[in-house]
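Justification of computing resources. Each target in the renewal requires a structure prediction run like the one illustrated here; the chain below, 358 residues long, is used simply to show the kind of job we budget for.
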Amino acid sequence: MRFELTPRTTVSPVVRALAPVAAFITAFLIAGFVIWLMGRSPVAAFQVYVIQPLSDPWSLQELLVKATPLALIAIGLTYCFRANFWNIGAEGQYVIGAVLGGWLALKTHGTEAGFWVLPAMLVLGIIGGALYGLIPAFLKTRFGVSEILTSLMLVYVAQLTLDYLVRGPWRDPKGFNFPQSVTFDPSATLPPVWEASRVHYGTVFALIAILVTAVVLGRTLFGYRLKLTGDAPRAARFAGFSARSTTLAVFAISGGLAGLAGISEVSGQIGQLQPSISPGYGFTAITVAFLGRLNPIGILIAALVVALTFIGGESAQIMLKLPLDLTQAFQGILLLCVLAADALVSYRVRLVSRGGGK
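Resulting structure tokens:
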């Protein structure tokens, strides 16, 4: 006996719309069962994970802060995934964007440089991420190397490069030997959106990227090109679309947005370079992209939901003594539930005997 998936001839729009809701409920029930097995109250965990962050003004600001890099990186990854290219190295592109943009902040530190420093840092962050993203794209188009392996391995190169710099040539001489750079000058710091707020202008960049991507993917020839390349590569070649140029373009866009997320986080939230500038935003953004079904508005909602799990996970670690790894496990369960819901909506499951009968 085996299970077999057969495509459904028609799928109700209402059912398709309700599938993510059912997936979220299922994921929360599974997580609640795991928490119960660990000897904690699922109701108390839900209160800490969801209710408290959404009812506290400071936590709502933190929600936007954590959702910003997730949304920026996930939007960039959407370009690759739509064209059926697998950029798994957004974490490295995020780091290199922070490093290249942070270099200018350190270079101009204490020089009373003008207003041009911050825009130049942002541009350097985008360039750094884009160039780093083009490495696996070039290796794929020139030598046929798997972009999955190269983009993933380059993450560790980027992280070790940052670690070397903040422990060596870029270390703050007055930092009590901690592996960190000097604090950026005000001219190299991304300002808050409103006074006395933790929400910086990186959030505005994320919203702009979402709106632009919605137009590009839904209303332009380039968006159609990505869809055709991902769904029917041969048809894309017959239509005159170059696979090489498409590969380079989507990896450059993806890396550039990840680099923008990196320099925005460093200049807007952290204020200096240090080894731990990311809790894994680049990898988590892959989950966000698929939770949002590669749709810009869906990605915005998914980024907020996943950011909520980060904040709730930190609170649960303190208040309920739950391990922070449980948050990552929940994010994985959530992704699996959404993918399973999509599959069950699009396909009918049948139990088939080895002879072919039902």
